[in-house]
Amino acid sequence: MRFVNQVVLVTGGGSGIGRAAALAFAAEGAAVAVAGRSPEPLAHTVKLVESAGGTASPVVADVTREDDVAAMVDSVVTRHGGLHVAFNNAGTFVPGGVADLAADEWSRALSVNLTGTWLSMKHEIAHMRAHGGGTIVNTASNLGAHARLPGIAAYVTSKAAVSALTRNAALEHIADGIRINAVSPGPVDTPMSLRPGETPADRAARLRTALPIGRVATLDEVTSAVLWLASPESGFTVGHDLVLDGGATA
Ligand code: NAP
Fold first, then answer.
1. How is domain 7-244 classified at the CATH fold level?
2. What does the pLDDT look like over 175-202, one tens digit per residue?
3. Cα of 74 to ligand 1 centre, how many Å?
4. How far does residue 175's CA lie from ligand 1's centre (Å)?
């Protein structure tokens, strides 16, 4: 129960890693606000948290829009009385190599993955530094700062930039009592790690040889790292980008 009396904001909380993290934070006592653009999946996450005995609320927000992000942070503080932890996890996978990407697809990847993370931190930090600090974990990827993969130029660029932004933000704000880190997963057990037309069984067969560990990461393996970075157990960890990739970049 590391998050009793803590308010945690999870962006991208309506699905995948974000939903699993919301459930994990709530199971350890946090009041959790889940944010995303679509109300229905957020409502489902809230229902799952409440069914497990936890406290949660939905916030509809597009992290690429500063007005939305400012309102998201305000509404979390109003609804739950504070903001102690933020997991900036909203993201999108955009395929396309350097010579093939349309300009609007390039912009969409940078806008959601990088600008969305920056805007979220900007408004979370504004609250946290005026209220005694907090912790922030951003979702980057092993594809970016740690490994490249042909054919997804905008995605790897946006995620490498999330890693750099995380380290810079950490330096800028540790003196404010705000500890900022990132996780960089390899393929995780969500639809995002399926290649076009691939089934989970196809993915399992591909990863048996393509990854040293031979499988995708479970949601628990990712969320346990996120909760550790968000908790006092990682108190001396600042500006770290924790790679969870089954040995892909070992
Ligand atoms: P996911 O289920 O597609 O989750 C992405 C979430 O982001 C969705 O809930 C989506 O909700 C939200 N989102 C997208 N655009 C948004 C926007 N403009 N504003 C607010 N929310 C937005 O995929 P996932 O696998 O859980 O991925 C979560 C994060 O992990 C992403 O940052 C991804 O890049 C990263 N990651 C995933 C893997 C993997 O293998 N799965 C590996 C490395 C890193 P709405 O569409 O309703 O807004």
1. Rossmann fold (3.40.50)
2. 999 999 999 999 999 999 999 999 999 9
3. 22
4. 30
Could you report the per-residue pLDDT of 28-81, keeping only the tens digit for each?
999 999 999 999 999 999 999 999 999 999 999 999 999 999 999 999 999 999
Q: Are 179 and 228 in contact (CB under 8 A)?
A: no
Ligand 1 in reach of 117 Cβ (< 6 A): no
Give the catalytic positions in this structure: 155
Residue nearest atom 8 in ligand 1 by C-alpha distance: 12
The reply to whether ligand 1 has any atom less than 6 angstroms from the CB of 141 is yes
Burial class (CB in 10 A: 0-12, 13-18, 19+), 241: buried
Q: How far apart are CA 165 and CA 193, in angstroms?
A: 24
Domains in the chain: boundaries: 7-244
